[in-house]
Amino acid sequence: MFKHLSLSCLLLAMVVPVSVSAAKVGTTRTVIPVAEKSKGSCDDDAKWKSASGKIDSKDCFRTSNEGSIELQLNGDKSILTIEENSTVRIDTLVEQDEDGFFKIKTNIQKGYMGFNVEKKNRVHFSTGTAAASIRGTNGAIGGNQTTMFAGLKNGFLWVSDTLTGDSLVISDGETVIGKGQFAVLKLKSSGDINFAKILNELIADSTLSLEDLKAAAISADSAYQELLAAKASAQTPATEVEDAALKVPQIKYSSYDSLRCVANVTVSDVQKGTEVRVSAVMDGTPISEVSVKRNMPKRLALRSGVHEYEFVVENDAGRNSVKKTLGCYPMKPFSVKVFGKKYEFLPIPPAPPGAEDVIMQTLHFQIRVPEYDPSFLNKVTVRQDGKVILQERLSQIQNLDYQIPVELKRNHKNRFDIEVIHKSGFAVKTTKVYEVGK
Q: Does 297 map to a domain?
């Protein structure tokens, strides 16, 4: 499901309440190092201290790798969790309004948060591209300056573009991803805070389109659910997974970018406290290897041209792989060399009386691509005075040196336009003019 949106004006909202008073509405319940807070500023040079204690308006919280903060809200058992590598500012706190609701407004400057909010608390989130208000909802939300996501275990979230009025509603088990437009996915892992970490890593990759993110999220959801199913079938509590027998990890291919030369895969069944090796093999030859310590999407570098790849994940328990034939065509400048001067005057006398005055010439040009491989080309077109006299596409292009016999008109500027388009979209145009006279 897609809706066109301008992300600079996204609005996600259910009910946006109006503040009537400011006060403390909660306290930090759990702080996992390293987690800090500062007053009024989120800059690196602010005065940072331990994140424990009461929550105040204008507090800024930040967490490092594997750090987190749980915020206990007043009024009920509502919990907000600021996850690792995140920076969140508390903009507004309201103790109670005339209806008895507690309210808190947070600004996610980077990273993601989990929420389990009961009906007495109304929580408003904002990111670089969106804002959201919830009450009585369980899920997660995150974002950066170009992309956002939100997933719900239960509850409702209304998404609206304030400029166009386009809107949609997500509910139990749905995840929305926004990048230029919205994609709504029905995922089994929607709202799961551990799955939100995977989504947060996905949206951090600015090279992925919304379609790439959609495919990667679906693949990651499947891998994550397989991991949960494996834990359940073994009847192993989540906290004891690392004690189970070592399992063979899994790898799935999701998409690739032919211009940037990267493939996107998802690694799963990586047990806590263990490490797996992920490698790319091209035409039978290893070209890269990295270590991975958790279930996550991974980008692997490709090479120019069309090759058969095998993406492999392995540990001491065994290996799994997936094979794909992929073509990679990075954008590189190239040139077209036309032999002779761009304008040539040919002093050819007229044919004798009674003979046909036919003037033949060879149009000679070379396409100089860095790879010296015609398979990198999408189309070659030659026009004579605007009329196509030669056009080759894809597999029809078998060489880079063209010698085309052409017939010229006398007392006329015979113009030849040559256009070559690379598979990356890069195009080169050049011309050649022959004028025939006495």
A: yes
Helix (H) or strand (E) holding 35: strand 35-39
Are 71 and 161 found together in one domain?
yes
**What is the tally of helices (H) and strands (E) in the chain?**
2, 32
Parent domain of 277: 239-328
Shared-domain flag, residues 350 and 323:
no
Residue 376 CA to residue 372 CA, distance in Å, equals 9
Q: How far does Cα 437 stand from its chain's mean position?
A: 59
- Residues 365-399 have pLDDT tens digits of 999 998 888 988 999 999 999 999 999 998 899 99
Per-residue pLDDT reduced to its tens digit, 150-188: 899 988 777 765 455 566 778 889 999 888 788 899 999
Q: Are 433 and 415 in contact (CB under 8 A)?
A: yes
Are the beta carbons of 9 and 161 closer than 8 angstroms?
Answer: yes
In sign, the C-alpha dihedral spanning 242, 244, 248, 250 is negative
> Which DSSP string corresponds to 120-175?
EEEEEEE-SS-EEEEEEEEEEEEE-SS-EEEEEEES-EEEEETTT--EEEE-TTEE
Instruction: Give the 3-state secondary structure of 347-362.
Output: ECCCCCCCCCCCEEEE
User: Is residue 377 a contact partner of residue 422, using CB atoms and an 8 Å limit?
Assistant: yes
CATH number for position 55: 2.60.120.1440
State pTM to two decimals.
Answer: 0.53
403's CB contacts (< 8 A; 6+ apart) are 362, 363, 364
Which residues, including other chains, have CB under 8 Å from residue 263's CB and lie 6 or more apart? 253, 255, 256, 280, 299, 300, 302, 309, 311, 324, 326
Residue 38: inside a domain: yes
Cα–Cα distance between 27 and 70 in angstroms, integer?
9
Task: Answer whether 73's CB lies under 8 Å from 115's CB.
Answer: no
Type of residue at 62: R
Contacting residues for 271 by C-beta, under 8 A, at least 6 apart: 241, 242, 244, 246, 247
E-assigned strand segments in 156-233? 157-161, 167-170, 174-178, 181-186
Name the residue with tokens 């046909």: 356
